[in-house]
Design a protein that fits this description.
Blueprint (H helix, E strand, L loop, with lengths): L1 H11 L2 H21 L7 H17 L5 H9 L9 H8 L6 H21 L2
Helix pairs in contact: 2-4, 3-6
């Protein structure tokens, strides 16, 4: 019953709005992953979520499931390879794919370490 209601609601929302909603959620989630350790109550959550997320990246060709969902609704000509790549491009920051991956994994590891250390 709930799934049918969600499908009907999803059909009413245009693909562009779905992309926008997913993108906004993705941005908020990325900020949470990076800075959630500031809140004492979130440290234990992050100590669980971050390794789970890293495992998801490993088994999913280094692509976030939210990026895949966003790409599913994007027009073919607008698809790009990664969420972070798109965000960096918005601010005119150019990094090689390798340096971008090092930056992402380094920041996520730092967030995990801080969450674990201050838990």
């Amino acid at each position: 019953m709930i799934m049918n209601q969600l499908r009907k609601l999803s059909e009413k929302i245009s693909d562009d709005k779905k992309v926008l909603l997913i993108n906004r959620f993705h941005s908020i989630f990325a900020l949470y992953l990076l800075f959630g350790w500031i809140f004492v109550s979130q440290r234990q959550v992050l100590v669980f979520i971050i390794p789970t997320l890293q495992f998801q990246f490993l088994v999913n060709d280094n692509m976030c499931i939210l990026t895949q969902l966003e790409n599913r609704y994007l027009k073919e000509e607008k698809k790009e390879d990664s969420f972070i790549g798109k965000k960096l491009a918005e601010y005119k920051i150019e990094l090689s794919d390798r340096n971008r991956e090092i930056m992402i994994n380094g920041l996520i590891y730092l967030s995990f370490s801080l969450s674990y250390w201050w838990m």
